[in-house]
């Protein structure tokens, strides 16, 4: 294949030779991208046809989310669905007239294969050239009009109930989660349900969260040996995963388990969250401190090969007693429990998954639960050591600003909930790396770093997610540099991405590369939208700095997407989590004292122990005019009382009397 990168050279060649462009968008850990590449793009016959008919452009969606964002919208509107690999055929002026996802080499059933499709497109382009150009114009014009949305009125508290009812209707009562197969984790739905539960007290909302997270933890979507979570489950039961591991999934799922741990105090959730964070710090961290994108699903062209076990392989590593126990715990069998996705045939290999708790197994075996846990843990460690000798899946070693922002936030929250200093240190190191390496010479945020080189203009997600991570990091370690950086990035974000007419943030900056349309991303899909995350950022920054203009922008953001949210509230759960903060009650907590003092530490630990999502936390060091008073002027008079750490709690712009008592502080926060 004669691939070109996205750029003027390819477009100029297409114009000069009057050829359409074949745009292939994928990412390195995408299983079906690899399948199509092997079947077609590495095939001489297909490559010869494509090189003759097209100018071919290859784009990594993770490097260029702006391009992917535009043409995925095209695909979804043309086909009614989307996914990767994403294949677009378009004119030299970037206007699409064909969209597809995975395309086989040879035609199968009703699906046209590449060997038939390419000559057909070539013939149509030559013989019906004007009709094709006209069709591309119409498609582009239609999409441009479809994505424009006028601002509406604000949305009230009733929308929370509507979203809850929609999630309740779609909830899988048997296995948890909110879709049929394929089943995705969608942690932002968990975040919303926890906030809805805290607001309403509805126990069913909490049940949906716990049941989903427990089933995910026991399922094969969870890597029981090395920890971390795979991309999604191909079945309803969370057992058979699509084996790639993505950084953003680890960050968001870890945050979900951290929050449910703060709610319930159950050890299972702590183990799940810490397992994910430890996996990232072991396998996805660069020497410089940034976090890599993820790990592939395939090894040597075989999906899941690294993670699957025959019973014979297990017995070679473990003693007979250990093998018997692990077989029972993780449902292993001689014939194997894994079915190949395409043919639905058993392969003789096993996925590790649990169909019941260790406690119930301990009762059956008449063995103390602690003994079972320790034996299982020891056996898992032996199996992991053995697995580490296998050829590992390929690692996508790009470092992306937006996904790192999510991971920084997860680690900061992990430090708060579990008191693990290494999580805070890792989050700070990652933030320092991003703030040092991912800026352009003119001081603008960049999207991607790899092999010592930074590049590609930052998107809305880069700004919003990094600000989110920096805010969580400030509230964990109270280093003002992170709060200052968040404020600076937020100003830049507002200056270059805000729509002054309809409100909301465009995905690309006002001076970014011009594509066929400039889109706003607002729905919460696999990752929450930048607009959803930024609405909460604006509210938090407003409360920290007492800047009412930021609160006004947040309200403008709400109105910008209110019409869409009212249509399908459950499609905007991260946005509704931000709305929950805006509706209140929301708290502003200032702890005044010596940072290393025992009483201040006790206050902070208690604050971090509980699930109090709608709060901002500021630390005001003892002494005259500390630097925080320049960013949050109201803290000037909030000083320690009688030399003791003192909490100043305000709720919805009304302040209560300061207290030096932890229990009184918690009472003010309704915990």
TrEMBL record:
One Pfam family recorded for the sequence: Thioredox_DsbH
CDD domains in alphabetical order: SSP411 (cd02955)
Source species, domain of life: Archaea
Residue ranges of domain Spermatogenesis-associated protein 20-like TRX in the record: 2-142
Membrane-spanning residues: none
GO biological process per UniProt: carbohydrate metabolic process
Gene3D superfamilies: 1.50.10.10, Glutaredoxin
Identification of the protein by name: Spermatogenesis-associated protein 20-like TRX domain-containing protein
Organism encoding this protein: Methanosarcina vacuolata Z-761
């Amino acid at each position: 294949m004669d691939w070109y990168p996205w750029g003027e050279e390819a477009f100029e060649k297409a114009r000069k030779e009057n050829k359409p462009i074949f745009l292939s968008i994928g990412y390195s850990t995408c299983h079906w991208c690899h399948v199509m590449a092997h079947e077609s793009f590495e095939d001489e016959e297909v490559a010869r046809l494509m090189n003759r008919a097209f100018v071919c452009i290859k784009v990594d969606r993770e490097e260029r989310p702006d391009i992917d964002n535009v043409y995925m919208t095209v695909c979804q509107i043309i086909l009614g669905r989307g996914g990767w690999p994403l294949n677009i055929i378009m004119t030299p002026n970037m206007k699409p007239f064909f969209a597809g996802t995975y395309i086989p080499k040879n035609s199968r059933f009703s699906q046209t294969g590449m060997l038939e499709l390419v000559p057909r497109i070539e013939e149509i382009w030559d013989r019906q050239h004007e009709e094709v150009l006209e069709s591309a114009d119409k498609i582009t014009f239609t999409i441009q009009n479809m994505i424009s949305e006028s601002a509406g009125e604000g949305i009230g508290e009733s929308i929370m109930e509507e979203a809850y009812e929609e999630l309740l209707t779609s909830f899988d009562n048997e296995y948890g989660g909110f879709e049929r197969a394929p089943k995705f984790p969608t942690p932002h739905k968990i975040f919303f349900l926890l906030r809805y539960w805290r607001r309403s007290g509805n126990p069913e909302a909490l049940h949906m969260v716990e049941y989903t997270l427990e089933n995910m933890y026991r399922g094969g979507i969870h890597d029981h040996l090395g920890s971390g979570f795979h991309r999604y489950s191909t079945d309803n039961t969370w057992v058979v995963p699509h084996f790639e591991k993505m950084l953003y999934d680890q960050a968001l799922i870890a945050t979900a388990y951290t929050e449910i741990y703060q709610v319930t105090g159950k050890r299972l959730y702590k183990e799940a969250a810490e397992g994910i964070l430890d996996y990232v710090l072991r396998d996805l961290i660069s020497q410089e401190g940034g976090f890599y994108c993820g790990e592939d699903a395939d090894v040597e062209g075989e999906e899941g090969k690294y993670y699957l076990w025959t019973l014979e392989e297990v017995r070679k590593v473990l003693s007979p007693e250990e093998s018997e126990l692990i077989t029972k715990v993780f449902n292993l069998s001689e014939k194997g429990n894994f079915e190949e996705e395409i043919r639905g045939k058993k392969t003789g290999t096993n996925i590790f998954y649990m169909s019941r708790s260790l406690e119930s197994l301990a009762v059956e075996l008449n063995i103390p639960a602690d003994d079972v846990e320790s034996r299982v843990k020891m056996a898992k460690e032996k199996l992991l050591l053995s697995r580490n000798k296998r050829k590992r899946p390929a690692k996508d070693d790009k470092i992306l600003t937006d996904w790192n922002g999510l991971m920084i936030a997860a680690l900061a929250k992990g430090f708060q909930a579990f008191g693990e200093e290494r999580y805070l240190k890792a989050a700070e190191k990652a933030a320092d790396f991003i703030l040092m390496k991912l800026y352009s010479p003119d001081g603008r945020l960049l999207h991607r770093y790899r092999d010592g080189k930074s590049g590609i203009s930052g998107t809305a997600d880069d700004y919003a997610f990094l600000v989110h991570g920096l805010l969580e990091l400030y509230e964990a370690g109270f280093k003002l540099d992170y709060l200052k950086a968040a404020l600076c990035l937020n100003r830049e974000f507002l200056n270059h991405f805000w729509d002054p007419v309809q409100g909301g943030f465009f995905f690309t900056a006002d001076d970014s590369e011009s594509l066929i349309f400039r889109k706003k991303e607002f729905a919460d899909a696999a990752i929450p939208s930048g607009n959803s995350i930024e609405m909460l950022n604006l509210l938090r920054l407003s409360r920290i700095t007492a800047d009412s203009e930021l609160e006004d922008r947040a309200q403008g953001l709400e109105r910008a997407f209110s019409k869409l949210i009212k249509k399908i509230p459950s499609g905007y759960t991260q946005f509704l989590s931000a709305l929950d903060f805006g509706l209140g009650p929301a708290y502003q907590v200032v702890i005044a004292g010596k940072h290393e003092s025992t009483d201040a530490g006790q206050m902070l630990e208690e604050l971090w122990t509980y699930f109090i999502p709608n709060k901002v936390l500021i630390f005001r060091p003892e002494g005259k005019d500390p630097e925080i008073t320049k960013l949050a002027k109201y803290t000037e008079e909030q000083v320690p009382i009688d030399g003791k750490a003192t909490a100043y709690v305000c709720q919805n712009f009304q302040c209560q009397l300061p207290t030096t008592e932890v229990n009184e502080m918690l009472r003010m926060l309704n915990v």
